[in-house]
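>> received
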Amino acid sequence: MPLTPNHMPIVVNEVEPAKEFLSLLGFEETLTKVISGPIMEEYLGVPGIEAEHITMVLKGADPYFDIQLLKYHAPASPQNEHIRDLSAIGFNHFAFSVDDLDATLARLKRAGVKMRNTEMDYRGYKMAFIWGPEGLTFELVEHGG
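>> returned
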C-alpha cells in the first residue's frame, strides 16, 4: 500500500505571520478550533493541553494535504534552539514542487519572504530554500523536463 502525505503540524508562537506565509504558498484556512481535554492530552501526550488548531489546506492538492498550525496556550512551547540548523537531528525542511521556480521566488520575495540560500541547479532540478514561520526552512523545487 503506497503512503501519501496527509498533513503536517507546525507549532507556532505567531499565528498571523504563519497563516500569511502559507497563504503565499497556496494554502487557505478552513477550520480553527481550540483543542483541549483528556482525549487530546492522551492522544498527543501533552498534559494540560490547550491550543488553537488552525487547518490550512493546500488548494487543488491531489491527494489532499494540509498544514495544521498549533498555537499552545498551555503548556508553554519551548523554543527549539536548533530549528535553523539543518544538521540537527529531526525534521530538516519541507519541500514543495512548483511549476516555475523563478516566478514563484519573485512573487514570494515581493511579499517579503526571505531566501535562505541562492537558487541552485542540481541533477535536473532547480531548487531554493526559503525561510518560513518560526525559523522553519521550506524548499521549492522545479522538476526538470
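>> Strands lie at 7-11, 27-36, 50-58, 66-74, 94-97, 120-122, 125-131, 137-143.
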